[in-house]
């Protein structure tokens, strides 16, 4: 599914949030959106989901204007995504039941997807009985069960510790490889963007404009991101975070001859 943002501008009353954003996201591409807090990244995601409309401009899905939410475009949030009164299996199955699939068939599919995210044996657990990482695994299963053509991820692992986040990034990458959806990922974690994305868009503060775009397609990536150290430094610099140690302190001591 191709997503196109055409001259998007967004204002909330007097607040100018997005200033003339245009980009095409190709079918199967994973584009990460990074930028300062409150610059409008989630707003762009909500527009692609059909939950928010641009003040000016258009969001197109395979050439047709977005008119509202659709199960083909699935939004996934940071946390609290599961219903606490339903088991993990029931939560995952619900995504299919909403689309008219009978409960028994939906639960069978849910078991399959829970196994894919390594939650076999936890089908009957309630969300509060499992860890945050396990809840997000279940949320991933729920996102993928309906075979979305576009996945809109809003800080999906933002509430997890660094190690759990990395294992979840691996799970997500495997699911994406198998299912091939187009993905828009909002993240504050530059390493997450470097690891997962084919392209990274770095936004300015409000009103958001793209400061710079980084292309990472065709790189075989691992969590060792040393190959991308210069890019990482540049992205952090654009975000106003200076990664270099104090230049003077970083100088090796001169060796007396
Ligand atoms: N429905 C709304 N009504 C009014 N203002 C809104 C609405 N949605 C978002 N905003 C405002 O628009 C701005 C951008 O919000 P948005 O959530 O898109 O930013 P963000 O870049 O995703 O931020 P963060 O990284 O902190 O999640 C914020 O100032 C926010 O308060």
Automatic annotation (TrEMBL):
Domain ABC transporter as annotated: residue spans: 3-230
Q: Which UniProt keywords apply?
A: ATP-binding, Cell membrane, Membrane, Nucleotide-binding, Transport
Can the keyword Lipid metabolism be found in this entry's annotation?
no
Q: Which InterPro entries is this protein grouped with?
A: AAA+_ATPase (IPR003593), ABC_transporter-like_ATP-bd (IPR003439), ABC_transporter-like_CS (IPR017871), ABC_transporter_ATP-bind (IPR050166), P-loop_NTPase (IPR027417)
SMART domains linked to this entry:
AAA
Q: Which Pfam families match?
A: ABC_tran
Note the CDD domains from the entry. Answer: ABC_NrtD_SsuB_transporters
Annotated Gene Ontology MF terms?
Answer: ATP binding; ATP hydrolysis activity
The answer, when asked if NAD is one of the entry's keywords, is no
The entry's family comment says: Belongs to the ABC transporter superfamily.
Q: What is the protein named? A: ABC transporter ATP-binding protein
């Amino acid at each position: 599914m191709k997503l196109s943002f055409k001259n998007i501008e967004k204002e909330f009353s007097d607040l100018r949030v997005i200033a003339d954003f245009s980009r095409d996201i190709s079918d199967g591409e994973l584009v990460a959106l990074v930028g300062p807090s409150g610059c409008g990244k989630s707003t762009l995601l909500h527009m692609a989901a059909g939950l928010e409309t641009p003040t000016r401009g258009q969001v197109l899905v395979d050439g047709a204007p977005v008119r509202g939410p659709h199960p083909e475009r699935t939004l996934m949030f940071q946390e609290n995504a599961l219903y606490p009164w339903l088991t993990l299996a029931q939560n995952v199955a619900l995504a299919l039941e909403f689309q008219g699939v009978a409960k028994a068939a939906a639960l069978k599919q849910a078991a399959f997807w829970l196994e894919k995210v390594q939650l076999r044996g936890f089908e009957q657990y309630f969300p509060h009985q499992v860890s945050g990482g396990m809840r997000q695994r279940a949320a991933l299963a729920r996102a993928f069960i309906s075979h979305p053509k576009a996945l809109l991820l809003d800080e999906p692992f933002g509430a997890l510790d660094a190690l759990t986040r990395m294992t979840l990034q691996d799970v997500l990458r495997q699911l994406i490889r198998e299912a091939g959806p187009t993905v828009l990922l909002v993240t504050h974690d530059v390493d997450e963007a470097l690891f997962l994305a084919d392209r990274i868009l770095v936004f300015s503060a409000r009103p958001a404009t793209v400061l710079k775009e980084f292309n990472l397609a065709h790189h075989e990536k691992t969590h060792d991101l040393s190959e991308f150290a210069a890019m990482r430094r540049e992205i952090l610099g654009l975000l106003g975070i200076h990664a270099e140690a104090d230049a003077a302190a970083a100088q090796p001591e001169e060796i007396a001859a």
